[in-house]
């Protein structure tokens, strides 16, 4: 086998075709609302980590659990990359009518791309936070928030950070 690309072999690279049951697919007995997605800092050096916080509110009448998912999208890259990459997730129990603020760290290495070596590149990225993948169409409603951040500096090998 000489072609090791993932294009056409996994839904992460299919373009606009959505998988039948994507990661996080499922139903709940309650509803959730996401708000206040904050990325800090919004502009960071190439080797820095990103802090993320988001507020999750249970707007339903029952206690419930939600799997909060964070996805990263490269807006431009020197090599082919997935449409988006899962970078963090956490199952959270929230009582009916209550809310919780969640904090995550997106490590610099999670932005690395493979170009004969793992490399970190400057550019613009979009981070998605919600109960499902970005653009997912399901019968169970769930929000996905998004925010952009920028990485400055010059491209460098991941091991150089």
Automatic annotation (TrEMBL):
The keyword Hydrolase applies. GO terms for biological process: carbohydrate metabolic process. It is an enzyme of class 3 (hydrolase). It catalyses: Hydrolysis of terminal, non-reducing beta-D-glucosyl residues with release of beta-D-glucose. The keyword Acetylation does not apply. Its EC number is 3.2.1.21. InterPro entries: Cellulose_deg_GH3 (IPR050288), Fn3-like (IPR026891), Glyco_hydro_3_C_sf (IPR036881), Ig-like_fold (IPR013783). SUPFAM superfamilies: Beta-D-glucan exohydrolase, C-terminal domain. One of its GO terms (molecular function) is beta-glucosidase activity. Residues 66-133 form the Fibronectin type III-like domain. Keywords: Hydrolase. Belongs to the glycosyl hydrolase 3 family. This is beta-glucosidase. The lineage of its organism: Eukaryota, Metazoa, Chordata, Craniata, Vertebrata. The gene is Bgld.
């Amino acid at each position: 086998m000489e072609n090791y690309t993932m294009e056409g072999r996994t839904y992460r690279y299919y373009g606009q075709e959505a998988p039948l049951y994507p990661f996080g697919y499922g139903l709940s007995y309650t509803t959730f609302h996401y708000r206040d997605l904050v990325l800090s800092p919004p502009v960071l050096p190439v080797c820095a980590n990103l802090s993320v916080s988001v507020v999750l509110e249970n707007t339903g009448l029952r206690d419930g659990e939600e799997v909060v998912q964070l996805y990263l999208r490269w807006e431009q890259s020197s090599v082919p990359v997935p449409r988006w990459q899962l970078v963090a997730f956490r199952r959270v129990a929230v009582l009916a009518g209550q809310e919780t603020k969640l904090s995550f760290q997106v490590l610099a290495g999670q932005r690395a791309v493979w170009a004969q070596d793992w490399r970190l590149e400057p550019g613009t990225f979009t981070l998605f936070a919600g109960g499902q993948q970005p653009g997912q169409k399901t019968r169970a409603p769930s929000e996905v928030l998004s925010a952009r951040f920028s990485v400055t500096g010059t491209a460098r090998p991941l091991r150089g950070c």
